[in-house]
Model the fold of this input.
Amino acid sequence: MPILVAACVLAAVAWVYLLVAHGGYWRTDCRLPVGGGRAEPGPGGWPSVVAVIPARDEAAILPETLPSLLNQEYPGELSVVLVDDGSSDGTAAVAESLEQGSGVALKVIRGEPLPEGWAGKVWAMAQGVAAAGECDYLLFTDADIAFGPGTVTALARAAVTDDRALVSQMALLRAETGWERWIVPAFVYFFAQLYPFRRIGRPGARTAAAAGGCMLVRRTVLAAPGDLEKIRDARIDDIALARLLKRPPVAARCWLGFTTDVRSRRPYPRLAELWGMVARSAYTQLRYSPPLLVAVLAGLAWLYLLPPAAGLAGLAALVAGAGTGPGAGTAAAWCAAAGLTGWFLQSVTYLPVLRLYRLSPFRAPGLPLAALLYAGMTADSARRYHAGRGGAWKGRTIPANEPSSRS
Done:
């Protein structure tokens, strides 16, 4: 019992730290910076931007997303390069048909076969960069991402006026079905907890991350470390790219924040599809390390599951009048107090993300259930990898024991 009480108290203390000292990760008011040390670009001074879209079997979703880029009213030069990454559903033809009547030039290129040692998406990104030619900024995005009016202008303004080499926004993911509402906000919450957005934007801080659906990168800074070849085997390309740019020798200024103007249109209506989305890369994030996997699963259980379980059990024991032995009532009271405090604090930190997704605040106490699901997905990610099915995505699979240190 003393060990359980100590674990509950430490979990509550950990939640106090996360609430007040972990970079404000739970806040969603980290929005696109406007106005820094430089004046806004004048007429003719806006940087040229080329959007690069890797697309593999995306014919169904492109009509919902690609026009949002092709119809951007950007004051500078804007064009789009779409890389058809070995699609079998007519992705290239659909993309080309969508260019008609748009105000932005579109170039569709057929991707070359995947070279050994390259991850599929990074190889498609590299081909898009080569096809982009000379430009000031590259906007890396995904085929399922839709941009609100004026988004590219806002991104370029923030990059120029705030002198940032990487400006990224976390796309608002779809949360329409029951399972999406349970899992998607928690995904965003856990991501922000791993990579507090305010620390990413802080000069000198080691925290580096980006969101692959929207990454505006200064072309000259990307060229400095040898384009994308240094992260050629990265399975989590956005994190790898942010680390490459932010850390020495490049040490570029980066920024990541929330938005409602960039949205993912990809549906995940069933649990199996959401499960696969997370399991595809969770073990990669842990660098395929069994000890790290055990530590993460234990940490999830301690931080998210223990507080409500101990709090409710301790409360039930007190109400039932159990624990009449020496010290038993005190232990039950401590478990109840510490556990319920930890549960309350984690619920409080979840509220802003729920508000961002316009979901009921009464979902907040359910965060431990979402954590339990994510623990299962992470464990299943490891199982898939060691079974030779890790990282499966549209016909491509990361072979077991394949190195991916840059992820």
Observations:
- The chain is about 45% helix and 15% strand.
